Amino acid sequence: MINVIRADQAEFDVRRGVSEIFAEGFTQWLGFFSKDPKRIAAAFAHTFVLEQFYVALYKGQVVGMAACTDGTSLSVKLDKKELRKHLGFYKGTIAGIFLKKEFETAFVLPSPGVGSIEFVGTAAEFRGQGVASQLIRHIQEHAPYEVYLIEEVADTNIPAMKLYYKLGFEEYKRKQIPIKRAKKIGINHLVSLRYSK
Asked: Which fold has domain 3-196?
């Protein structure tokens, strides 16, 4: 049976499991820094603010993750030294500069009663088994918000889009990716979704 809890309340350190799911799920975004998911996982394990994350656990293994913030608290914080240690001086420095803007900027403007769901991911061997649904439903039932936003989902991520629509989210914004970059990463639009209780 899968159990969903806040990451900082787990009986063991969940960072490794969270970082492995992160590396696996965000490979297309992080491929410049390394093609090796283990190296990406090691480089980013330090970044997760566990108080902001929920994890799905199965037999002592992290099988899913998602963060939920109020728009003022960060769910990830980068350490340039850690990034350089795992990615090398050049790529670690670039990661620290460019990803700081991406990761350490609130996805949504803070508003009373609005939560931002971020970094939703499921371990490869558990995909299609309802783990992400369970995580998001848990957040909707236990986090103190009336409205939930999921920002910038790749339009080509069909399983995620189907899941969010199934859970009652509706598209409210679509951002075009510049054509040159779109061809390189295989994404045309970033879609933002909203759910209201």
From this structure: Aminopeptidase (3.40.630)
